Amino acid sequence: METIYYMYTKQRKEFGRHPNFSDEAPGILFEILPEREVKLDLIERNPCVANVQVVPEMSEHEVNTEKVVFKNTGQFHKEGGWPKDIDPTEVEHTLRYRKKVEKDEDYLHAIAKLGGQTEELVKQNNAVDIYEEYFEGHPDLESSEKPYANTLLVFRDPSPIKRAITHFSCLGHTAHGGIAAPNLSMRTYNTQ
Length: 192
What we know:
cytoplasm; flagellum; dynein heavy chain binding; alpha+beta; 2 strands; two-stranded antiparallel ribbon; dynein light chain binding; 11% strand; elongated; 21% helix
């Protein structure tokens, strides 16, 4: 690639005179006196403090949180989640246990709370007609073309730990092509 530049030369005598600095007594070169008419329109503020900053104020905050340990567990439910001492195949045992639980004060409060929440959700569902035809009279949106997809770009993660792209930002087409910024994040939490 060819470098474009222009070089010029001057002799020292063409630079101009050598500056000669000397000490002088202080003096007033120009003075602007206040105008009385303008001063009457102004209100004096005492004390007056004004802070002026061109850049926006920003702050930083760090928090150290406790490490959270997760554990995956499972339970097989063939017939409800009965306690160990109750045999779910025995009708008498299950009826006796149900009556005991239904008499418990916490059970009554839980049922009352769930009943209120359920009633609210049912009212919301009744407000929306889920069986209404929203696109009645419109032609079918199905296309005769088969759907297809092309791979235009493949992102490779340089890290040995595999990370997923969780957010992707791009700046359209510029003179040098597009600019892309993928945000990579760990797939699992706290594995290190």
